Amino acid sequence: MALELIVNVLLLVFSAVCFWYVGATMPVSPQNELGAEQWPQLLLVLLMIGIAYNLFKFFKTHKKEAIAGAFAEFLPGVLRFLKSKLFKGMAIVVVMALLYEPLGFVMTSVLFLVSYGILLGERRPLTLALSSIGIMLLLYIGFSVFLGVMLPRGYVPFLRNFALLLESLFQWTR
């Protein structure tokens, strides 16, 4: 309940800032037509009206005591979320996205699959390694060979050389 209220207020503030930003940065159009700055502002006004209605409905349906209790439980709930597997999985995906270009597809996908396997409870190192390498090869063949997607090779020299070796091994399919 507290999260719903916080998100609605933040959306309302963000929409107002966007309304101001569009008006401040776009060139002014003639008075007799809707210009490039007025369409986004019109949509933002409609969005702000909808959010304001949602906030009105929120305060109408919830009592002050329930809202205060929800805020008292909010911080412990956030701490529980930060300790959950869901958050750890999201963090693994963010780290993977950051490492994707520098390390390349091969190393990033293997590290991602191993770390996610550990998160899901797999503890046998051989199973983790073999399944991660196998899935990485299937993904590599699917995207690079069959779909023709150019996957990042990475900036680290030995990882880049390994990616080039993989490309040369599957050259016969092109």
Oligomerization: single chain
Percentage beta strand:
under 5%
Average of pLDDT: 86
Radius of gyration: 25 Å
Q: Provide the helix percentage.
A: over 70%
Residue windows where pLDDT falls under 50 for at least 5 positions: none
Give a count of the beta strands, DSSP E runs of length 2 or more. Answer: 0
Counted by DSSP, the helix tally is 6
Tell me the structural class. Answer: mainly alpha
Anisotropy-based shape: flat
List the helices and strands in order.
Answer: HHHHHH
Provide the descriptors you would attach to this structure in a database record.
flat; 80% helix; 2 domains; mainly alpha
Describe the fold and architecture.
There is one protein chain. The chain has 174 residues and is mainly alpha-helical. It has 2 domains: 2-83, no CATH class; 85-173, no CATH class. Helix content is 80%, strand content 0%. The chain has 6 helices and no strands. The radius of gyration is 25 Å and the shape is flat. The relative contact order is 0.08.
